[in-house]
Amino acid sequence: MKIAIDGPAGAGKSTIARLLAQRLGLRYLDTGAMYRALTLAALRRGVSCADEEALLRVATSMDLEIVFDPETKGNLVRLDGQDVTALIREPEVNANVSLVSSHKKVRDFIVALQKEIARQGCIVMDGRDIGTVIMPDAQWKIFLQASVEERARRRQRELQRSGHAVDLQELAEQIRQRDHFDSTRAVSPLRKAEDAIEVDTTSLNVEQVVERVLSIIKGAGEDV
Ligand code: CDP
After folding, report:
1. Residue of the nearest CA to atom 16 in ligand 1?
2. Is the CB of 114 under 6 A from ligand 1?
3. Is the pTM for the entire model greater than 0.85?
4. Which of 36, 79, 168, 209 has CB 3.0 to 4.6 Å from 84, enough for a Cys bridge?
5. What is the chain's pLDDT, residue by residue, as a tens digit (224 residues)?
6. DSSP labels for 162-189?
7. Could you tell me the distance, in angstroms and rounded to a whole number, from the CA of residue 165 to the centre of ligand 1?
């Protein structure tokens, strides 16, 4: 079984994908974490996030491990031997990850790794191009959506938990910019696969979204 979860920043992909995997006994991969880890590695090495060749060198030389975390049931990300699970969610990574992931050579490298992981099946993957590029053969493709305002509020709560106070309007603006950048880039832009089912999560809590997706998977979600 393969389940693809796509959608824009802050639509709840990683939370929902992680819980779905847990409920269905499947593996889970947060593909954004790979672009985020590469972004962190580039920032640490002083490599410009606009330099495609240099980024590819970082990608091929970094030691990246994504493993199952029994505590959170999510992904634990290790970069060059260090646990960077929290660090890859820092504002500096948020601000640069879209640029890093827009380069063709970078994507070719990371996409190949992700396709290899997907090939083994029994997995829920979340990202921007899962239903379109990584697992076009997924049985279930869900596209999560939510209003910009709600996504900004969710991102604000997430950042507050890690000790960052960020203005809501500023976050909404960053989200708008990232949506625009991700949807208009030349290489596998963010878009809903033709056979994906869209779920608007604006007024739903996490449990309600999980239930909605589970009902779609069980065949009761035609009215979504
Ligand atoms: O959690 P959030 O949606 O903010 O971010 P994420 O899923 O960790 O993805 C961070 C960035 O990585 C996105 O804005 C995309 O630019 C890029 N990305 C991508 O291009 N393709 C993917 N499959 C996953 C992420």
Report:
1. 98
2. no
3. yes
4. 79
5. 999 999 999 899 999 999 999 999 999 999 999 999 999 999 999 999 999 999 999 999 999 999 988 888 889 999 999 999 999 999 899 999 999 999 999 999 999 999 999 999 999 999 999 999 999 999 999 999 999 999 999 999 988 988 888 899 999 999 999 899 999 999 989 989 999 999 999 999 999 999 999 999 988 544 44
6. TT----HHHHHHHHHHHHHHHHH-SSS-
7. 22
Ligand 1: distance of its center to the CA of 32 in Å? 4
Residue 127 Cβ < 6 Å to ligand 1: yes
* Distance separating alpha carbons of residues 141 and 21, to the nearest angstrom: 14
Compute the distance from residue 81 Cα to the ligand 1 centre, in Å.
Answer: 23
d(CA 3, CA 24): 10
CA of 135 to the centre of ligand 1 (A): 16
